[in-house]
Amino acid sequence: MAASKVPAADNTLRILSHLATQRGPVPASSIATALGLPRSSVYHLLTVLTERGFVLHLPEERRYGLGLAAFELSTGFSRQEPLSRIGRPLLAGLVDRLGESGHLAVLHGRDVLYIAEERAPRRPRLVTDVGIRLPGHLTASGRALLATLPPAQLRALYPDAEAFVDRNGRPPHSYSELKTILNRVRHDGYATEDGEVTADFASVAVSVRDHVGWPAAGIAITFPRGNVPEATWPELAAQISEVATELSRRIRGRTGLD
After folding, report:
1. What is the pLDDT of residues 173-229, one digit of tens each?
2. Consecutive 10-residue averages of pLDDT for the chain (258 residues)
3. Cα separation of 194 and 152, whole Å?
4. Helix segments in 66-211, DSSP class H
5. Domains of the chain
6. Radius of gyration (Cα) for the chain, nearest Å?
7. C-beta of residue 117 within 8 angstroms of C-beta of residue 102
8. Rounded CA separation 104/20 (Å)
9. Domain of life of the organism in this record (predicted)?
10. Kind of pairing, strands 63-66 and 55-58?
11. N or C: which end of the chain has fewer CB within 10 A?
């Protein structure tokens, strides 16, 4: 490969690409070793990236991970339509089979941003119209996405109690409560919410991962609480997972919470 005419820019992008493939924050020394760069150069570039919010520095652990601005770039791709265009036909087919409404959402900081919605016939309008944001920790799609994040990234999103928006008085209200919910999501392989967003409505969601394992989107089915018995939610999740797997394949990614 020809040498870059702008080495600083090239090395900056290499650092971001490297961090995107890691399972969690890593030391600057390991970044330098992996990329074959001088440590001093890596530290200088990391300092700038941290100031701009693209990298998160964990001083106690002496490690660096992706920051919120990097997530903004990721969700910016989604907002520019490719992901919604790929996912909308798959979502429409799922809604047709199940007879309940569905949506596709992406992480946007601590929120989920809805990029596609398919409403089933004779089903009420939901609050998840395209372009709407809701607190990720309260929604099924948000929980499915948050459960895929490394602990350090999750903690950075929810540093204190003020990060937890209270919509209907339902948990979580703290980081420990959120961890309990997300541990259940990882165990079950899917996420749920039951009245946390809208009274008498529930949702089941599965995450879609991109090619390096990061959460690309959440697919959720939302329904009046009495329409779908809770005992059948695992079966519903399995059908959503099939669609998530196909969407993941189409964006050259993977699905699941492992």
Report:
1. 999 999 999 999 999 999 999 999 988 899 999 999 877 677 889 999 999 999 999
2. 73 91 90 95 95 91 89 62 83 95 91 90 74 92 94 90 87 95 96 92 93 84 93 97 92 56
3. 27
4. 68-79, 82-98, 140-146, 151-157, 175-188
5. 7-66 (1.10.10.10), 72-255 (3.30.450.40)
6. 19
7. yes
8. 23
9. Bacteria
10. antiparallel
11. N
Residues in the chain: 258
The rounded distance, in Å, linking the Cα atoms of 68 and 41 is 23
Tokens of residue 162, six digits: 């003020």
Taking the C-alpha atoms of residue 26 and residue 80, their distance in angstroms, rounded to an integer, is 31
Its pTM stands at: 0.69
Which residue is associated with the tokens 């961890």? 179
How many other C-beta atoms can be found within 10 angstroms of the C-beta atom of residue 52? 11
Q: What mean pLDDT, rounded, does the chain reach? A: 88
Residue 193's DSSP bridge partners are: 203
CA distances from 214 to 123, 153, 208, 238 (A): 32, 11, 8, 21
Q: In the numeric block, which tokens belong to residue 75?
A: 């969700």
* Beta strands at 215-224 and 201-209: parallel, antiparallel or unpaired: antiparallel
